[in-house]
Amino acid sequence: MSYAIVGFGAVGQALARAFARKNIEVAVASRRAPDALAPQARAIGPTVLPKALQDAIKADAIILAVPFWEHRKVAKAFASWRGKTVIDATNAFGVPVEDLDGLPSSAVIAKAFPGAQFVKGFNHLPAGVLAEDPAITGGRRVVFLSSDDESTTATVAALVERLGYAPVSLGKIAEGGQLVQARDKSWAPLIFQDLFKKDK
After folding, report:
1. C-alpha distances in Å from residue 174, one per residue of 6, 66, 101, 108, 178
2. What is the phi/psi pair of residue 115, to 5°?
3. For strand 3-6 and strand 61-64, is the pairing parallel, antiparallel, or unpaired?
4. Tell me, what DSSP letter sits at residue 1?
5. CA gyration radius for the chain?
6. How far is the C-alpha of 156 from the C-alpha of 145, rounded, in Å?
């Protein structure tokens, strides 16, 4: 499976470090040209490959690490996202609830990517924490996942494991997924909860 991170700010770079630690190739793209991303990508590691957005999203799995409404620009790249896994690492803090039609923020993003296998993940930790090695003595840092499709959760959980984290499923987006989604100017209960799961 091939991977891409769209958005190369603090969160995108933190995720790129996670891939680099495990020597997993990942494309990175943003509004800036690939040449502009190259110095920071090289500093993170040789498996982090700057690409134009249109090339990056050819990957099988795409992590959205962009400001919330930027997802719409990414979504316009394909009429159908069938066959793609889209991982939503955004937060909608400060976005009025009425602008989301009363839906969870991830449900709004999922509608913009028709056909995609969609999961919420990697969004509950600050970038500085996400950039750290997730392994500690006897345990691993938790990454929460939520999706309306169990097989998609399982696919992304396998990636989370490869990156060295401990995946924890919260169930469907409108149910457990609400625990990791900002609403207006309030953070959900599990946002910023830096938890570790003990290894067996």
Report:
1. 24, 22, 14, 11, 6
2. 90, -15
3. parallel
4. -
5. 16
6. 8
CA distances to 48, 117, 119 from 148, rounded to whole Å, are: 30, 9, 8
Closest C-alpha among 167, 134, 174, 152 to residue 61: 152
The 10 Å Cβ neighbour count of residue 170 is 20
Structure tokens at 60: 């099988």
Three-class DSSP category at 27? strand
Would you call 148 helix, strand, or coil by DSSP? coil
15-58: per-residue pLDDT in tens? Answer: 999 999 999 999 999 999 999 999 999 999 999 999 999 999 99
End-to-end CA distance of the chain: 28
pTM value?
A: 0.96
Q: Considering all CA atoms of the chain, what is the largest pairwise distance in Å, rounded to the nearest integer?
A: 46
What is each CA distance from 51 to 1, 70, 81, in whole angstroms? 17, 18, 19
Please name which of 144, 149, 143 lies closest in space to residue 117, comparing C-alpha atoms.
149
Q: Which of 87, 102, 106, 123 is nearest to 6 (CA)?
A: 87
The fold adopted by the segment(s) 3-198 is Rossmann fold (3.40.50)
Question: Which one-letter amino acid corresponds to residue 21?
Answer: R
Measured in whole angstroms, the distance separating CA 181 from the mean position of its chain's CA atoms is 13
Any idea where the domains of the chain sit in the sequence?
3-198
